[in-house]
Design brief:
- It contains 6 helices and 34 strands.
- By secondary structure, the chain is mainly beta.
- The chain has one domain (48-61, 75-89, 115-498).
- Strands 5, 6, 7, 10, 11, 12, 13, 14, 15, 16, 17, 18, 21 and 26 form a 14-stranded mixed beta sheet that branches. Strands 4, 22, 23, 24, 25 and 27 form a 6-stranded antiparallel beta sheet that branches. Strands 1-31-30-29-28 form a 5-stranded antiparallel beta sheet.
- This is Secreted protein.
- Residues 1-21 form the signal peptide.
- Keywords: Signal.
Length: 502
């Protein structure tokens, strides 16, 4: 989208290591190995579907921001972004050339969101099971310098000398999943025609890596497949308690999973990294916050070659799946970066570099990015984000995205939410929209069990049984399956069920 003139912008601102059993790193070999539902927040949930009404709808006023399990709160900071000034995130690399023509004489598009609402208007009281629309103009993001971030990633690949493509990584999947669900989770889902798998023994039990976000090839490509395969990506954050003298966390790893044959699941972990420095001194660190904690990565969305990762207090970090590089040493799970002629990535063989960020603007109302999912069916296509709150006041915001460039759509240098909503549901761990229906993945809704809520604006939610510990959501469009990953050790499953609409 062409940029607005500076005067228009001024007006706008005024108006508005696949490791062994311990699952710590990467060796190059494999690791070890519904009836009707009642509403409300307690009681045993049968496993079918019902309308989410209750005899006494619960109304609550807006609460304070609640920390997601495993995260820390803080100001809306970008946590040391890759680089500084704002530029067009639609660029695809440092070698882009212009055609030498002068500026266009076509009229600039009309600005959007010239009169954003007060923040109090988008933090209203909430009614349980009721989805209410809000003004998306209250929420705005701005990109950092993606061209510089891409140049830095390319300099890193030149220094490591090990750029690889996704097909090469698919040829090196070194872990085996277990078909089907555990008996514990299968009993919960028994009234649904589910599909799914479990991680290998090490990944299923490890207590310091926690799965969170989920996306896949149906997000990344219009034809649903990459290299002729159905793929999932699942993000895990390094969940540890840091002492004052401890080294930083190991950030975020991705599981690249081939689900083409659900009876023969294969996968491999890759590490997300942040490039640092410039030119011949470029290096990299793990995907952590400034405090040294791991980025929570509560949601991910794969769009083209870009991977959007939710950054809880700020917005999105963006990684490039076409710029994967290979470590030269995988025997030291404490080592990260380039030193002594070696490339280390906490013993993982492959790493994915960050290329840019989107952060809430100073004038935007606050928003917590607890999850993200892609809706290709919307017009325009949108990234759907949701807030985790322990009360009913969590909100959704949907951000317009250009599928061709995989960049968010700007107006005057900002990305305004296309629309927003208040969920009327507690503990929203993931959300997506598809063909007009809103889906919300919520944990601890009926004792330990999750629920999948389905709703339309200004309507009452319908409920589907959902596993213990559900997280982010992903829609596999061609099969009309909606997927989630369960996070708790020894209860971990990754599952999909047929979409039911509303």
């Amino acid at each position: 989208m062409p940029r607005l003139a500076l005067a228009t912008l001024a007006l706008l601102l005024v108006a508005c290591g696949d490791d062994p059993a311990t699952s710590t790193g990467d060796t190059s070999g494999p690791g070890p190995s519904s009836g009707a539902l009642t509403t409300g927040t307690g009681g045993d949930d049968p496993t079918g579907t019902t309308t989410g009404t209750s005899s006494d709808p619960v109304t609550t006023t807006t609460g304070t921001i609640t920390t997601e399990p495993g995260t820390t709160t803080g100001p809306a900071t970008t946590d040391a972004p890759v680089t500084g000034t704002t530029t067009d995130p639609g660029t695809t690399g440092p070698d882009l050339e212009t055609d030498g023509t002068t500026a266009t004489t076509e009229p600039l598009p009309d600005p959007i969101c010239t009169d954003p609402p007060a923040c109090a208007a988008v933090a209203p009281a909430a009614t349980e099971h009721h989805l209410g629309l809000l003004d998306g103009c209250a929420f705005a993001l701005a990109p950092n310098d993606f061209a510089a971030g891409i140049a830095r990633a390319d300099a890193l690949l030149a220094r490591t000398g090990t750029a690889v493509d996704i097909e090469a990584v698919l040829g090196q999947l070194n872990r085996t999943g277990v078909p089907g669900l555990s008996a514990y989770q299968a009993d919960r889902m028994k009234n649904h025609d589910y599909v799914g798998f479990r991680w290998d023994a090490g990944d299923g039990a490890v207590d310091y890596w926690y799965p969170q976000g989920i996306t896949g090839s149906s997000d990344a490509r219009a034809d649903h497949e990459i290299a002729g395969k159905r793929l999932l990506l699942v993000s895990w954050y390094h969940k540890i308690e840091l002492g004052p003298n401890d080294p930083p966390a190991k950030g975020v790893r991705l599981s690249l999973v081939d689900i083409t044959d659900l009876d023969a699941i294969r996968y491999r972990h890759l590490l997300l990294v942040t490039p640092t420095g410039d030119g011949p001194d470029v290096n990299f660190v793990a995907a952590n916050t400034k405090s040294g904690d791991a980025l929570h990565a509560g949601g991910i969305a794969w769009v083209g070659d870009r991977l959007y990762v939710a950054e809880t207090s700020a917005g999105f970090r963006v990684y490039d799946m076409s710029r994967i590089f290979e470590a030269t040493a995988t025997d030291d799970d404490a080592a990260i970066g380039i030193a002594g002629g070696e490339v280390n990535a906490h013993s993982y063989r492959y790493a994915v570099p960050e290329i840019g960020r989107y952060a809430l603007t100073a004038d935007s109302c606050k928003f917590r990015f607890s999850s993200v999912a892609l809706d290709r069916s919307a017009d325009p296509p949108v990234l759907v984000t949701a807030e985790y709150q322990t009360d009913l006041t969590g909100r959704l915001a949907r951000w317009p995205i250009d599928l061709a460039s995989a960049a968010l759509v700007e107006s005057g240098g900002h990305v305004f939410a296309h629309d927003a909503a208040i969920t009327g549901q507690s503990r929203t761990q993931g959300a997506v929209t598809y063909e007009g229906v809103y889906y919300m993945s919520c944990s601890s809704q009926a004792q330990q069990w999750g629920r999948l809520y389905r709703n339309l604006p200004d309507s009452t939610s319908e409920i589907t049984a959902w596993p213990d510990g559900p997280e982010d959501l992903y829609v596999e469009r061609d099969l009309e399956l909606i997927w989630t990953a369960a996070e708790h050790p020894n209860k971990r499953v990754t599952l999909g069920i047929p979409m039911q609409g509303y």
